[in-house]
Every structure is written in structure tokens, then in C-alpha cells.
Amino acid sequence: MNIESLRTYCLSKPAVEETLPFGPDTLVFKVVGKVFLLTGLDSDPLSFNVKCDPDLAIELRERYDAVQPGYHMNKKHWNTITVDGSVSGRLLKEWIDHSYELVVDSLPAKVKAELKK
């Protein structure tokens, strides 16, 4: 996965917008105004922060060296993923999906219903 495939994947999800609220170097993906993924445009190798269930976050950090507590984020709810080739693209997408779904699940029922149309 590279920055372009990451962008394409995130933007393929319903109601996602791409923003630069922290300046030109940090790309932020939001669903209905709520952040589900952040990445530094100058990070080499590519890394990104995703929201994660707290118990799963701990499990992933213990299992994968590429998964660390969220950099500059709430360590309980966010992981930083380094795309160093040690984790499959399928797993990376699963973690992005999980982050997106956590944010969608936190939205009001009316908004969630609109997203599923």
C-alpha cells in the first residue's frame, strides 16, 4: 500500500471527505465530519493512525511490530500502523474498515441510516 492506494481506498467509502486541518503535511479522512484515519504526507515508510477498539488495539500491538500506540493520539483508542511490508494489504484494509465502522457506529441513528442508503 502506498499513499495513493490509501487515499483511493479511504475515499471509496460512503460520506468520506479528505481534509488538511493540521497543515499541508497531514492528510485527514473523515466520515460525516469525524476522523477515522490520519497520515503524514511526508512519512517514509508510509504510516497512518486509525481508531481501534481498546482491547483489539492491545492485541494488535502485541502481535505486530508495525502496530504501535497512536502517535499524538489517545493511546487507548488509536493505533499507528507502519506500512513496512510486514502486514498484508488485506489486513491494512481490515484495520481501516474497523476504524471507519467504529466512527459510523458512533453516529446518530438517523445519520447511520442515511449512509446505508
From TrEMBL:
InterPro entries reported for this sequence: YjbR, YjbR-like_sf, YjbR/MT2646/Rv2570-like
Keywords: DNA-binding
A GO term, aspect molecular function: DNA binding
Claim: Amino-acid biosynthesis is one of the keywords in the record: no
One Pfam family it belongs to: YjbR
Name listed for the protein in its UniProt record: Putative DNA-binding protein (MmcQ/YjbR family)
